[in-house]
Amino acid sequence: MNKKVLLYVLVVVLLISGIGLAVTYNSLVKKDEQVKQTWSEVQNAYQRRLDLVPNLVNIVKGGADFESSTLVQITEARAKAMQTVVAPVSEQTVNEQTNAQNEMATATNRLLIQVENYPQLQGTRAFKDLQVQLEGTERRIKYARKDFNAAVADYNTTVRTFPTNTTAPLLGFKAKDGFAADTGADKAVVINFTK
Fold first, then answer.
1. Which residue of 50, 76, 97, 101 has the smallest Cβ count within 10 Å?
2. CA–CA separation, 46 vs 78, rounded Å?
3. What is the pLDDT of residues 34-53, one digit of tens each?
4. In this structure, what DSSP letter does residue 112 have?
5. How many helices (H) and strands (E) does the chain have?
6. How far, CA to CA in Å, does 113 sit from each of 70, 122, 160?
7. CB 17 within 8 A of CB 163
C-alpha cells in the first residue's frame, strides 16, 4: 500500500513539475516574441528614416548650390545603415544598427544645420514638410527604442527571477541587452562658436 501511495505522489509531483515547466516555457516564448516584435518596430522606424533622407537630399540638391561633401556623407551613412536593417535581434545587431543609425542621424542633422545658410531653401514647402516628417520619425525612433527597452526589461526580469532563473537556461533563454546611452552622453555638450 505504501508503494502505491508513493507512486501516486511521484506521478503527481512529476505532473505538477511538467505543467510548471510548460507554463514557464510558454511565458518565456511570449516575452521573447514581444522583444522581437518591438525590435521590428525599431527597424520600421529606422526604415522610415532611411526612406525620407534621399528625398531631403534631393530637395537640398535642387534648391541650393550645396556643399557636396555633406551630401556624400549622408549617402554613405545611409548605405551603411541600409546594410544593417532587417536583422534578427541580438546584442551585436542592436549595437551595429545603433551605430549605423546614429551616424546617419548625425549626418542628417549636419545637413539640416547647414541648410540654415540657405533661406530660400528653408522657405520651400517641400523642405518644411520633409523636415516635419523627419522630426516625427525621430520621435517614432525614440518611442520604438523605449518600447524595445521595456520589452527587454520585462523579458530579463522573468528570465532572472526565481524560480524561472533555474529553468530558463535549460530551455535556452538568456538575458538580452537593450539600448544603452552613448558613451559620454552623461556629460553636457560644449558649444563653442570661436575658432
1. 76
2. 10
3. 999 999 999 999 999 988 88
4. H
5. 6, 0
6. 11, 11, 45
7. no
Q: pLDDT category, 192, cuts 50, 70, 90?
A: very low
User: Could you read off the pLDDT of 108-147 as tens digits, one per residue?
Assistant: 888 887 777 777 776 677 888 888 888 899 999 999 999 9
CA distance 129 to 169: 50
For the segment 9-42, what is each residue's pLDDT rounded down to a tens digit? 999 999 999 999 999 999 999 999 999 999 999 9
Q: In this predicted model, what pLDDT tens digit does every residue of 90-101 receive, in sequence order?
A: 777 888 888 888
Nearest to 114 by CA among 76, 71, 54: 71
Across the chain, what does the average pLDDT equal? 83
User: Would you state the cell numbers that stand for residue 113, as one nine-digit string?
Assistant: 544645420
C-alpha closest to that of 96 among 83, 109, 115, 112: 83
Pull the grid cell for residue 105: 542621424
Instruction: List the one residue out of 141, 134, 109 whose CA is nearest residue 45.
Output: 141
Asked if 74 and 191 count as a contact pair (C-beta separation under 8 A), the reply is no
Q: Which amino acid appears at position 107 of this protein?
A: A
Helix (H) or strand (E) holding 126: helix 125-160
With contact defined as beta carbons under 8 Å apart, do 102 and 112 qualify? no
Buried b (16+ CB within 10 A) or exposed e, 72-87: ebbeebbeebeebbee
